[in-house]
Automatic annotation (TrEMBL):
Protein name: Pseudouridine synthase
Keywords carried by this UniProt record: Isomerase, RNA-binding
Enzyme class: isomerase
Protein origin, superkingdom: Bacteria
UniProt family annotation: Belongs to the pseudouridine synthase RsuA family.
Length: 240
């Protein structure tokens, strides 16, 4: 059983708030009867209609994309730039990205039409781990890693302790490769953290989202999540 306005939102009728407005206006019927009160639950067997037009309930779908550089992590872009959704032209369902990656950041990003799971995965309280591989300017020392692990003050807030390690130091090019695992998802967080310790990011890739990676996927390629992976994600947010 699911709340009526949630079912309507998932079907693309309107947002939850917009769906509640339609319900209050008496435009929604469940099994042929007008419903105007909030809190009504409906099952898969119930027929829901808006303005006497039955709504179709989308099957939940889940995809993993290896996002290339120069792509917007959004369903639409007013500037007409390519978005992550543009990689799925044959998908009829309305899907959207789970969280965001910067325009120039590559790697793991999930897309789905499961609003509930999206909210759980992106909510700060669920603390889903995200691992990044960053090429940075300068030769990173253990002192910088320690600062990253302890947490940094960024734009008025202190980042939570992270996991960090040096993968490679290239003295000739004056660059380093660093792996950084965080639980938060604030805008430009990884870039800001590394800049704070004196190492601006030159390239950034999200190597891992929870337990999911882009293994076997070239840049711009995607695959559907397996049932056990979806269940594992749901189990993960329920355990946190």
């Amino acid at each position: 059983m699911e709340r009526l306005q949630k079912v309507m939102a998932h079907a693309g009728i309107a947002s939850r708030r917009g769906s509640e407005k339609l319900i209050k206006e008496g435009r929604v019927k469940v099994n042929g009867k007008v419903v105007t009160e909030m809190g009504v639950n409906v099952s898969k067997d119930d027929t829901v209609s808006v303005d006497d037009i039955p709504i179709s309930r989308e099957q939940k779908i889940y995809y993993l994309l290896n996002k290339p550089r120069g792509v917007i992590s959004s369903a639409h872009d007013p500037k007409g730039r390519k978005t992550v959704v543009d990689f799925f032209p044959e998908i009829e369902e309305r899907i959207y990205p789970v969280g965001r990656l910067d325009y120039d950041t590559t790697g793991v990003i999930l897309l789905t039409n499961d609003g509930e799971l999206t909210n759980q995965l992106t909510h700060p309280s669920f603390e889903v781990e995200k691992t990044y591989i960053a090429k940075v300017t300068g030769l990173v020392h253990k002192s910088a890693i320690k600062k990253l692990e302890e947490g940094l003050t960024l734009d008025g807030y202190k980042s939570r302790p992270a996991k960090a390690r040096i993968i490679e130091v290239n003295k000739r090019n004056n660059t380093s490769i660093v792996e950084l695992t965080i639980h938060e998802g604030k805008k430009h967080q990884v870039k800001n953290m590394l800049k704070k310790v004196g190492h601006p990011v030159e390239k950034l890739n999200r190597d891992k989202y929870a337990f999911l990676t882009t293994e076997g996927l070239q840049s711009g390629e995607w695959r559907e999540l397996k049932t056990f992976e979806v269940n594992k994600l749901k189990q993960l947010v329920n355990e946190i």
